[in-house]
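Weekly puzzle thread! Below is a chain. First person to post its structure in token form gets bragging rights.
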Amino acid sequence: MTDVIAYVALGANLSDPVRQVVSALAALDSLPGTHVTKKSALYRTAPVGNIDQPEFVNAVAEIETRLPPHELLAALLALEARQGRVRAFPNAPRTLDLDVLLYDNLQLDEPGLTIPHPRMHERGFVLVPLREIAPECIIPGRGVVSELLSEIDTSDIRREQPPTTIA
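Winning reply:
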């Protein structure tokens, strides 16, 4: 398989969330046939759904990968588990959450995996860091990231740290 460009969302709000996300960014770069090519700054964001929990730290990474979509998802779920993710209930606090946002121009709707991520176009905590690294990125069936971002409230999203260049 040839390399494809994919985007992965990262989020955490337990057990030192900054460390969790930074550690996960490094771990993404060590997945088989995968290399992180861009990563956003970290952003502090309010929880969605279950609002009675700590703020999140969020980021987005652009990767080049040879992993097929389901293998990439399996690798991300394994990484979550290694960092202590427990799925107690929907929208529960978590040590790490990793989501495949986009995988080239693939549109896929299968049990356990939908690409593009079905709610990414509604979520500032995804679109703000994605715009930082890929402002002209197109979400199939939805539009350009920078245009979609103009349609949602991002006033509670705060930049945590500047982006780190990847060599």
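Puzzle host: Confirmed. Bonus trivia for everyone else. The longest strand covers residues 56-65.
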